């Protein structure tokens, strides 16, 4: 493998870890827990793993002897910077307690467990991937672990390899599956623990115990660098409006964080659009108004940040998509037999009146994208909906109307961008390298303490790493019931942008000024070497949430 100069230098980086994880540790049980909602139903579905206590690790003065164990690890779902360091931390944690413990990686995600495709992860392999981006050590996949047949098939290879614990590194859906798997293995006495780790660049897997999902820090810094570059170009040429869509299927955390880092002229927050019951027309008018106000000052340029999931948060669109999801879940085979040229009219004829009217009013391309194949969870693949182009086109049309009415005097030229995959496999920032390694090490401690159905947790991460708090949180604590594929199912509750939260309030207090004034910030590339205030700074979101 040919390595870049940065890879070679980064291989020597030693992640910083909480003081409690240095040397012998002991688990301290905290308060007993309950799910965030639907307590009776979640307790009924998870009788063996519900209500377990929070766990915190503290330094121990008694060195315990741990038997050698075999552990499996799976990377599940979309990539996020730092995944390799989770595996490295897990490996080091296992070897620290018994050098004969072994780690096995299942190839290409949960499908590798079902298909019995695996490799042993030795020190030589691990060392090649320390502090690197991507999930290419063992690959990832989106197979859902949800059926008894899959669980039993996976158990065959776990027993064959004498694996007594499985670590699933994934987002909310992957960790929901991990929780279901933990419950099943506990119920049948399989003797296999299941531990989760919180991964998603979207930032929507968090709560009081899970401060942030790993990869969010790095991805936002990558996107903010490119947004800053575009804004500098924008302020140099002074003739384009850049419409930039950012990843974040269900929440606007990435868009909000990038706005706090770069000060764009407009940033749409999906959760606010929903709370204010705004229409697509309202969003278009709000952007066009800023364009017109800047044009009055002679500034025919600017930047607009758009969260990937915006369409699903516009209430009328949300109702349409919900009906489409239900209809297509039940009639997928019939729909696929309809000729492409007739699909639009077929759908219109099957929808309720208001939804049919809205669907009929959409541009052909957007309407078609709303009926494309769903993701494995039955949701619209919003990344395929080119919201940035839709808004740029609609804003242009609105401004043309205003020009005829004498309400707009400027020139409008737009360019569109979608930043997504560019950030998912970046070399992790120092924050993510440290955080991920600590998560992996914490997972090894949860395994050694016999825990199952837990997610590794590392808190207080705006403080120096020495003061970080490592522990575990029962996954059932994060669950509620939601409709998936037309059925109510237990899932981890997504953490959306809180309009009453400090990060949104900071944005809201400044956005009117950013709209009119060219107050761009240029963060530049991630810095891996240099002063700590440049290299180790956590996200603006975390700093504001923790009052730093």
What does this structure look like?
The chain folds into two domains: 10-215 and 428-484, Rossmann fold; 220-424 and 501-545, Phosphofructokinase domain (Rossmann fold, 3-Layer(aba) Sandwich). The protein is built from 22 helices and 15 strands. The longest helix is centred in the middle third of the chain and has 23 residues, at 315-337. α3 runs antiparallel to α5, α13 (315-337) crosses α15 and α14 (340-350) packs antiparallel against α15 (353-361). The strands form three sheets. Strands 1-2-13-12-7-6-3-4-5 form a nine-stranded mixed beta sheet, sandwiched between helices. The chain is an alpha/beta fold. The radius of gyration is 24 Å and the shape is globular.
Topology:
Layout (H helix, E strand, L loop, with lengths): L4 H6 L14 E8 L6 H7 L7 E7 L10 E6 L7 H15 L4 E5 L3 H6 L2 E3 L2 H7 L18 H13 L2 E8 L1 H16 L5 E6 L17 H22 L3 E6 L6 H10 L3 E2 L2 H6 L4 H17 L5 E6 L2 H4 L1 H23 L2 H11 L2 H9 L2 H6 L17 H18 L9 E6 L1 H4 L5 H19 L5 E6 L9 E6 L4 E6 L2 E6 L9 H15 L15 H4 L4 H6 L3
Parallel strand pairs: 3-4, 3-6, 6-7, 7-12, 8-10, 8-11, 9-10
Antiparallel strand pairs: 1-2, 2-13, 4-5, 12-13, 14-15
Rg (CA only): 24 Å
CA(first)-CA(last) distance: 42 Å
CATH topology of the largest domain: Rossmann fold
Per DSSP E runs of 2 or more residues, the count of β-strands stands at 15
| Number of helices, counting only DSSP H or I runs of 4 residues or more | 22
Please describe the biggest sheet, giving its number of strands, its sense, and whether it closes into a barrel. Answer: 9 strands, mixed
- Count of individual domains: 2
% residues in beta strands: 15-25%
At the first level of CATH, the class of the largest domain is Alpha Beta
CATH architecture of the largest domain: 3-Layer(aba) Sandwich
Q: Which strand order does the major sheet show?
A: 1-2-13-12-7-6-3-4-5
Using the alpha-carbon principal axes, give the shape: globular
Mean pLDDT level: 94
Q: Which consecutive residue ranges, at least 5 long each, have pLDDT under 50? A: none
- Specify the helix fraction band: 40-55%
Could you say which structural class the secondary elements and strand pairing correspond to?
Answer: alpha/beta
